[in-house]
Amino acid sequence: MITVNGDWFALETANTGYYLGVRGGLVENLHYGARVRVENSVPLREKTDIGYGSDVVYRAESAPLSLEHLCLELSPLQKGDYRAQSLSLVMPGGARTADFSFVCARRLEGSVPPEGMPAARGGAETLALDFSTPEGVAVTLFYTVYPDCDVITRRLCIKNGADAPVTLEKALSYQLDLPGCDYVLSTFPGAWARERHEACVPLTSGAHVFGSTTGASSAFCNPFFMLCAPDATEFNGDAYGFNLVYSGSHMGCVEVSPWGKTRVAAGIQPEGFAWTLAPGERFETPEAVLTFSRAGKNGMSANLHAFVQEHIVRGKWAKKDRPVLLNNWEATYFDFNERKLLSLAKDAAKLGAELFVLDDGWFGARDNDAKGLGDYTVNRKKLPGGLAGLAEKVHALGLLFGLWFEPEMVNADSGLFRAHPDWIVQTPGNVPATGRNQYVLDLCRAEVQDYIIANVNATLASAPIDYVKWDMNRHISDNYSPALAEQGRFSHGYILGLYRVLQSIVEQNPDVLFEGCSSGGNRFDLGILCYMPQIWTSDDTDAYERQLIQAGTSYGYPPSVMGCHVSASPNHQTARTSPIESRFNVAAFGLLGYELDLGRLTPAEQKAVAAQIAYYKAHRRLFQYGRFLRLCPPFGKNKCEWMMLAPDGSEAVVGEYLHLLRPNAEKPPLRLAGLAQDALYELEVRPQVVDVRTFGSLINQILPVKVNAGGHLMHAVADRYMMPCETERYAAYGDLLMYAGIRQKQAFTGTGYNENVRLMPDFSSRVYYLRRVDAALRTNGEEGAL
User: Fold this and answer.
1) Which of these is catalytic: 471, 525, 540, 691?
2) What was the pLDDT predicted at 62?
């Protein structure tokens, strides 16, 4: 909780502590990390009795004081702190010097969200620290404590109490100074179809700056990043995590000073930003999220996963089981009619799916991505009964019905553009750029926001729609809005407009399950998750690439918000071939869906899919809301291992994934984590099947007759029959499973095959189910195979 003790303050969660001390007009960070017992603040305070060499002395009333040597929560501007700072502004008269001085501390109940922006809910207490300049420019730092998940959120508010305008040129959400610099920085950059791969760099002297200028939180660099001790692993060592509750362009900066201190700062992207405050006006920054764990990267992730599930995701679908869906996009693209859609839906229902989603192409003249966007009038040639007619028929199959939108965009070849060509984002005197044949609607304009709100709400009211996929398929360019007198407001103003739109639509449709999407994972952030409880993780559904994408995403976000689909092979994004079982085994560690024509699968593949869906439903709560552990992340390795552990430790699922087969390679034991040492568990591999064509001509070594491995007979058999994989089942105590591990059955090496050999070619995988059992129920009386 929060303690105000004279000239120092303590913000404490279950395992972490953030300690602050007042030093004259300054507030310094005494410690942020593991929770400690503080009798008094003297041992934690920086000692500054004698100035260093060429130091600029800020104030010398009691001792020569240089700002460079202090860990500061807010720095006076142009007063001798030469590190990157959270604020930059132009004061009345044109000066950029701002001597912020501490005024007072206030304790507030609960969370204190910023106006007009999403924020976490359910905080225990908030500490507000007030500062002011001699001119009357006031800054308040807000710290909200979430004890249950070891998270502290931060933001700041600037109010112009001067008698003339003040212009903000940079307004980050926080700065945090740490007393050392021995850390490894991990960011999560990428691009379309390869989002959020972990990139690590040891800190060196100077600044590491990263972020987005695209108008969105961006696939180029996610707002989440972390700092870890050099020896930190997934399970041990110090790990800090940082994120923003924000969906727009952002910047993060980690700077090592010449004296070995580390400053961390993040917030709204300052490039192109300018926001003038008239006397009496204020500006609030997005909320930032900070966490710390001594239990390594998995411990840090566990904090953030709990925070997202408890304090970010909200509404009817928070903590609710999510349905298994079929999306028609990669099955049909734009080429569909009602008959074809209902055929897909019938196949989905037959195999156990629960939700059918109609993707792009249902409206206007939308037969390709060059026209129709913005005209959300149903195409009656494709859907003669309209959305209501299709939805009712889908519901009659026992399925929920979902619909795709892209409300922020418009094609030039559309009725909306012809009626309102001035509504797009464009700079006067310049030809606007396009992306995916579309323009961005100007959400800085209230009339555009109102149009989208009315249009989407009317569509959702026209039919029984249970789910919405909200897409946004391009970056923003030509940043300008005639609605703004100050164009430096554009990027942030667009996001404020988006938040107004989302808030209104979600409030109007509380029962609808919304999924955010932006060319896949181009806007995967905590801001979107405050309105939409899940996000499409990536347009790339390749099973191998998804291991990298989902693992990178998992450092800051739980699987319960990741949309994950099984798609066709060869994959439409990579042309890579992978087994249908592996495609499921990856997608199962998230919100499962299918995005292919199920009717074109062979009878054997359809049987496998039905078994997959049944297995997922049987363990759905575990897959969606278990504690996610990266046993072995895929970055730089030839394998990947994940685990989802029930909150009470009673059961778990484990995913094991091979990338490229190394012939005759040594196989280390499979070691698990998070189990009770003295508890007995049963572990069993998920029943899987393999296409008999995988063996090629080797099939003749085990058949009594010779066949043509590429012939019609072989294909006819393979279409109707898939060979069962090995079975494995063990009983063992938690300490054995964690510290020794199990040695699985021998892998196929080309010298023989039987039911006790694991066939694990390239991109193959296994899933295991683990449950805690009473030792008295063991069937064989000893640890081992059952």
Assistant:
1) 471
2) 61
